[in-house]
Automatic annotation (TrEMBL):
Pfam families reported for this sequence: UPF0014
Annotated keywords: Membrane, Transmembrane, Transmembrane helix
Family of the protein in this entry: Belongs to the UPF0014 family.
Lineage start: Bacteria, Pseudomonadati, Rhodothermota, Rhodothermia, Rhodothermales
Subcellular location: Membrane
Membrane topology: Multi-pass membrane protein
Segments crossing the lipid bilayer: 22-42, 78-96, 108-129, 205-222, 229-254
Protein name: ABC transporter permease
An annotated GO cellular component: plasma membrane
Length: 270
């Protein structure tokens, strides 16, 4: 791989007129985002710093990824595995913050996202739904990992809330000699259920309330609309499967981690 020619090609693409059009569109979107930040400040929601940081960070990261993809199209297939592993690590770091204070939250998040998203990516690549190429594995794999990250964050947040708000009930059950997993079964169930609400609602509204970007893009590119619809459903099914596996693994492992060897509930830091 000739790095100099690769970067020269990326630089040439960055100077194309369409990029300037994109920057003007970003400016328009930024105005809308600024209104939201301003409303947060006006209503004293205390979210403006997080909202502004997330917006700027998202812009920088997606542009960096766009530049990186230009380089990735020329690298060997093996690099896609390295990139996806890096994405899993990043997803772990971001989602773990929702469960700050839970014992073993980083390790469990890494395992849950890695296994949940990894199984789906490997299986669907083997099935041919994801082409075994860098240009296919990285974008589609990133969607699966990102949604697993979101669902893991929701599961951690809900599990922590369930433990905090039901500590007395849990401790009474444990003191009466009930098996820890039986005492925490409802907490696990509620965590999994709450974390899957967004993806379940997306499946319910698929093709009715909204037409997802991949399907719309394929149709605009001239692809058979029926095949575009089928492939979009496959993508949603992958997201659902990866999210479900991630949520279940994360919640079950946490339910074991919060119980001590003496079968007592650990104290969870705020």
């Amino acid at each position: 791989m000739d790095l100099s020619s690769t970067f020269a090609d990326v630089w040439t693409r960055a100077q194309e007129p369409v990029v300037m059009d994109g920057l003007l569109q970003v400016a328009a979107a930024t105005v809308l985002a600024t209104v939201v930040v301003g409303l947060s400040r006006w209503r004293k929601l205390q979210l403006e710093t997080e909202l502004a940081t997330a917006f700027v960070r998202g812009f920088v990261q997606i542009v960096a990824m766009g530049l990186l993809i230009g380089v990735l199209l020329t690298v060997p297939l093996a690099w896609s595995g390295v990139i996806l592993i890096g994405m899993v690590a990043g997803a772990t770091w971001i989602s773990r913050q929702r469960g700050e204070g839970l014992p073993g939250v980083t390790r469990i998040s890494l395992l849950a996202i890695g296994v949940g998203a990894g199984i789906v990516i490997v299986l669907m690549t083997w099935a041919g739904a994801i082409e075994a190429t860098v240009r296919s594995l990285v974008p589609v794999g990133s969607m699966v990992i990102a949604n697993a990250m979101k669902i893991n964050g929701l599961a951690l947040d809900r599990f922590k809330e369930e433990i905090d708000s039901n500590r007395d009930v849990i401790e009474v059950g444990l003191s009466l000699g009930a098996p820890p997993q039986a005492v925490l079964a409802e907490r696990v169930r509620d965590s999994v259920r709450a974390s899957l609400i967004p993806v379940v609602d997306s499946l319910k509204s698929l093709g009715w309330v909204w037409i997802p970007g991949i399907m719309a893009g394929m149709i605009l590119a001239g692809e058979n609309p029926i095949y575009a619809a089928l492939y979009q459903f496959v993508i949603m099914a992958m997201i659902f499967a990866a999210g479900g596996l991630t949520s279940v693994i994360s919640s079950l492992l946490l339910s074991r981690e919060v119980i001590t060897e003496a079968e007592q509930l650990q104290k969870i830091d705020a």
